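Team,

Forwarding the record for the chain on the shared tracking sheet. I've put the sequence and predicted structure together so nobody has to dig through attachments.
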Amino acid sequence: MNFQRGRKREDLEINLIPMIDVLLVILIYLMVTTTFSQIAELQINLPAANGEKAAEKPAAVNVVVDAGGHYLVNGSILADAGVEAISLGLRRAAGDQIDPVIIINADAKATHQSVVNVMEASRQAGYNRISFATQAKQGK
């Protein structure tokens, strides 16, 4: 038995406007409540080039690290590869110089730890100015 003979069936439709309103409210809420934090950045000072020569050349201590983990401080080889021995060698090489620049010449195949040892020894000796020597590739 069909009691709804004369009635037309209504087409179903999905109303998207309330869903869009809810999404916009959520979006506004997220935008307001989100805190924008600044990620820690690496602070570097890039050198500035000018035409003048420096009046004084800063005191420098050259440290060479080879692939085998051997250290040379201003041309003299260190018998011990420990941080304390490197620190003592740096102090000896610097003499009475105040805050010399430690220039690290490391072999490309040298371990990271051997370079970090030189940096730690420099810190222990009280020298904060460290520089790395590099070499341009040949043929390019």
